[in-house]
Amino acid sequence: MSQRKIIHIDMDAFYASVEQRDNPELKGKPIAVGGLPENRGVVATASYEARTFGVRSAMPSKRAIQICPELIFIAPRFDVYKSVSDHVREIFYRYTDLIEPLSLDEAYLDVTEDKQQIGSAIGIARQIKTAIREELQLTASAGVSINKFVAKIASDMNKPDGLTFIPPDKVESFMESLPVNKFYGVGKVTAEKMNTLNLFTGADLKKLSEVELIRLFGKQGSFYFKIVRGVDDRPVEPNRETKSISAEDTFLNDLSNPAEMKEHLDRLAAIVADRLQEYEFKGRTITLKIRYSDFKTLTRSQTLPAAISDHETIADTALQLLLKTDIQDAKIRLLGIGVSNIVDESEPPANRQLRLF
């Protein structure tokens, strides 16, 4: 089988860049698109000017304004972002039909066989970036390689407006040199666990057998075993159906204070609400996920009479589900919220499909 040619395209600070494009007075200023601090909001996207202060997506807006007092908050305009995203998608379709959107601002493209018979994935990535710049006055970063995992990491290496190519004969050495905290999907807690085990790079992971990795990291261990060897056979899936929208967080220190639990649930609910509204989705079933310090995991769900997407309903329902568990003396290392039974509000009613969790 010939090597695949995979491109990962990631728009640069997408929401914030659209706002700066549409309002020149915002150019060069630290801005955050998201909910206001007084409304228990979170940052959806921060401009690069704001990122220099440490402002990041999913950060509580209250914290963001503390570390960047000059930060300008902009209410999201999801209809505008969706329109821009549709235009970007149309540019992708000029080259391939094998497109797997991950969100409004990023997607995988399989250009092993491209429509224009250009033959060069790097050349296609350059043309896509040029079209986005000329037609939308925005920039995107691209990663090009032989599989999805490496292409995604590559797209983040030279932001903004970057293009990074990891050739087939360099993939394995690239993965060996990569710090574990740069592995897509390895969060802060997992990275710290790896570091305590003297696992700092892909080369360190490569020294362990698949059995050892599974023992240490569960089923993800099998994936780590393959990916440090440059193996990722996951196809680009153009028709992947969205079954749920969720967010979760693992904590460096176990939560035992109910007020802290409520604060984290509120933040997670805001993230989920933003994602639902981004896609113009609503859902009827809210699921709470709890993992305790002993790694025991439980889920609790409630199905509502009508589909919702608002922050307050999601937060309040998740809190009620939490309070129905025994939180007295509980030590919680992970909380998550998911919304399922999704309805796509952007589709005409006759075309809507109820998606199951």
From TrEMBL:
Pfam families: IMS, IMS_C, IMS_HHH. Its main location: cytoplasm. It catalyses: DNA(n) + a 2'-deoxyribonucleoside 5'-triphosphate = DNA(n+1) + diphosphate. It is found in: Cytoplasm. Its EC number is 2.7.7.7. Its cofactor is Mg(2+). It comes from the Bacteria. Binds 2 magnesium ions per subunit. Mg(2+) binds at D10, D105. GO terms for molecular function: DNA-directed DNA polymerase activity. Keywords: Cytoplasm, DNA damage, DNA repair, DNA replication, DNA-binding, DNA-directed DNA polymerase, Magnesium, Metal-binding, Mutator protein, Nucleotidyltransferase, Transferase. It is an enzyme of class 2 (transferase). The record marks Y15 as: Substrate discrimination. The keyword Protease does not apply. NCBIfam families: PRK02406.1 (NF002677), PRK14133.1 (NF010731). PANTHER family: DNA POLYMERASE KAPPA, DNA REPAIR POLYMERASE UMUC / TRANSFERASE FAMILY MEMBER. Monomer. Poorly processive, error-prone DNA polymerase involved in untargeted mutagenesis. Copies undamaged DNA at stalled replication forks, which arise in vivo from mismatched or misaligned primer ends. These misaligned primers can be extended by PolIV. Exhibits no 3'-5' exonuclease (proofreading) activity. May be involved in translesional synthesis, in conjunction with the beta clamp from PolIII. Belongs to the DNA polymerase type-Y family. This is DNA polymerase IV.
